[in-house]
Amino acid sequence: MVIYLWFLYAALSSIFASLMTIFMKIGLKNLDSLLVTALRTTIVFGLLWIIVIVMHKNKGIMTITNREWIYIFLSALFTCGTWVFYFLALKETDVSKVLAIDRLSIVLTVFLSVVILKEKINLMTIAGIIVLIGGTLLIVFN
After folding, report:
1. Per the domain annotation, does 98 fall within a domain?
2. For residue 1, with 0-12 CB atoms within 10 Å meaning exposed, 13-18 middle and 19 or more buried, which class applies?
3. pTM: predicted TM-score of the whole model, two decimal places
4. Which residues of the chain have pLDDT under 70?
């Protein structure tokens, strides 16, 4: 059986995202979500720099172009927005509802990948998108 590395990484990402959501829901119980998000981001910042330095990935930082910096900045800006709104929503309602709506980002990302990146999709992808939207509606409005 062949296990593709991208699949392993994606599966691990899914596991970490699930655990992050559960621990944040517990951690947000008596705290302000913006404060917790800022603290969490500070910890993530430190951990990532340790990983980058230990793995010697910091050598390429001087070769980053201005155009690449713009996209890094935009990505960071939208990451910040995602985290702020995700944890504000998580503070207000059930994890299942927040997560279902948050995962509609899959639908939007596929659409944007077609429009901006010129990626191709097929009927199975379109069917999957329809199922995702239907599943979201079932979870949120049960």
Report:
1. no
2. exposed
3. 0.81
4. 1
